[in-house]
Amino acid sequence: MANEAANDDWKHRAPYRIHKEDDTFHARYEGSCHCGRVTYQISREAPLDAKYCHCTTCQTLHAAPFQWAAIFHKDDINFTNGHHDLVWYDSGEKTTKHKLPCKITCSYCRSPIMDEGRNMILLYPTLIHFKGNEEDKKKFAPTQRVVDIPDGKPKWTGLNDQSELMADSPKEAYEKLKKKREEEKKQKEEEEKKK
To answer: Which residues is 103 bridged to in the sheet?
Structure first.
């Protein structure tokens, strides 16, 4: 019985816990899987970032040339139905245990709902119902690609400027990153001197 309770612990933590009506959660968008069994709301007006990922894992798991993902905090989502109908997949260990990071899908139609990382979630904007509002949809526009495709966008070895730019990134992106890192280094040195 204690093992069962431990296995159900995920139901009470973000991103799976259902927000109460008295919470400060304000729904801005709604989304659902293909069959509609899993429905959710998003409170943040725009994602923290959005990307196209062309890695071979995403290509294989989505059976597509890339994945379009929008990054959110775990508390930015509220499941309104079907969070008990979710299944997990850990692509690293190839297991269906809820082990982070993992892929989450609807158990019925198998629509990919999100990727859950240790601190964030990656939602798929194609599941969000923008209700014809193109301005809202533009807020989810990708700012980067995660692999090397010659399209003029910066390419990173990891996420954003927290990693290294790949070789075919535009020259301006290299210069901007170099300047930013030099400023950060200078600021850090100045803070160290003050101590």
So the answer is: 89, 115
d(CA 12, CA 19): 10
* Tokens 């290294």 sit on residue: 164
With b for 16 or more beta-carbon neighbours within 10 A and e for fewer, the 150-182 pattern comes to eeebbbbeeeebeeebeeebeeebeeebeeeee
The two tokens of residue 134 are: 């193109």
**DSSP string of 36-83, one letter each residue:** SSSEEEE--SS-SEEEEE--HHHHHHHTSS-EEEEEEEGGGEEEEE-G
Tokens representing 97 are 């245990």
No. of helices (H) and no. of strands (E), the chain = 4, 11
pLDDT tens, N- to C-terminus, the chain (195 residues): 444 445 567 777 788 877 676 677 888 999 999 999 999 999 999 999 998 887 777 777 777 878 888 999 999 999 998 888 899 988 888 889 888 888 999 999 999 999 998 889 999 999 999 887 788 889 988 887 776 556 677 766 666 666 776 666 677 777 887 788 888 888 888 888 887
